[in-house]
Design brief:
alpha/beta; binds zinc ion
Length: 293
């Protein structure tokens, strides 16, 4: 019998951006459904965070990538490799937007020397035959044509919508539906009606968030501030915008994650919630690494 408790989400890394710093790890999540682990995004550190959450790499059956910015896929290849090093015998599925096929193929080529040695020396199966990459293009638009089923398996349905994260054309959000629970992960996006449609009525929406005043403090420390600020405003969601998104989608619980800036201790949890709360009256969870939801 399917129980609500059979579906849980663990936030593995909650800091937005490719910089590695103290505190929050880079973006990654895992949804565990009836004991099967589905990883969504593979920022640097995802393997270590999985292990700290009690999940060995070789227990991962499926990986979904929201988009190919490095903070979401830098450790995709190494996670697949580590699953293999840990005894992977069953195929592992990788779903994601172009050019994820080329990215995985290039990684396997980069590791060919080691893989060939271990096949001959340790009797391992060929990793290249165990990785099944499903590169796909999600539909655009807000109507019912705007989302599509990625796959269905054992009572779980995963669907996708294309969100707005310029200049990346292929930026996706994913929705997990089980008989007991629905969880949506926004990936990176600015305010997007497509995401609101995908998240309609969900129990849990995990959404990226940006704190404007904190952002300006962050930018005062970097040399490419002007172009970086424009990218961030055009392609991410502020706390106030996020309140509108959650309210319009009618979600029960909103989980803030992918914090930008993600390493400014002067921004308290209350400050992260404040702008969101102006527009959303549901439950707000300020995400932390290794938090289970
Ligand atoms: Zn991004």
């Amino acid at each position: 019998m399917f129980q609500v408790s059979d579906t849980r989400l663990i936030l593995l890394g909650t800091k937005g951006g490719p910089r590695v710093s103290k505190g929050r790890a880079n973006p990654a999540n895992v949804v565990v459904v009836n004991g099967r682990s589905y990883v969504v995004d593979c920022g640097y550190g995802v393997t270590r965070q999985l292990v700290d959450a009690g999940i060995e790499a070789h227990e991962v059956c499926t990986i979904l990538i929201t988009h190919n910015h490095s903070d979401h896929m830098l450790e995709l290849g190494p996670l697949v490799y580590t699953a293999w090093a840990g005894g992977l015998r069953e195929p592992i599925d990788v779903w994601g937007p172009p050019p994820v096929g080329k990215i995985v193929a290039s990684f396997l080529d980069y590791m060919a020397y080691d893989i060939d040695i271990r096949i001959a020396d340790e009797g391992r199966p060929d990793l290249r035959k165990l990785v099944r990459v499903h590169e796909f293009e999600a539909p655009s638009g807000v109507s019912s044509a705007g989302s599509a089923t990625v796959f269905e398996r054992d009572g779980l349905k995963v669907s996708v919508a294309r969100v707005r994260h310029p200049p990346i054309a292929h930026a996706y959000a994913y929705r997990f539906d089980t008989p007991g629970r629905s969880i949506v992960l926004s990936g990176d996006t600015t305010y997007a009606p497509e995401l609101i449609a995908l998240a309609r009525g969900a129990d849990v929406l995990v959404h990226e968030v940006m704190h404007l005043e904190g952002l300006d403090r962050l930018l005062s420390r970097v040399p490419n501030a002007t172009s970086l600020r424009k990218h961030l405003i055009d392609s991410h969601t502020t706390t106030e915008q996020l309140g509108h998104v959650a309210a319009e989608a009618g979600v029960r619980t909103l989980v803030l994650s992918h914090f930008v800036p993600g390493d400014d201790p002067s921004i308290t949890d209350a400050m992260w919630s404040e702008g969101v709360r102006r527009n959303f009256s549901g439950e707000i969870v300020v995400g932390r690494d290794l938090m289970t939801i």
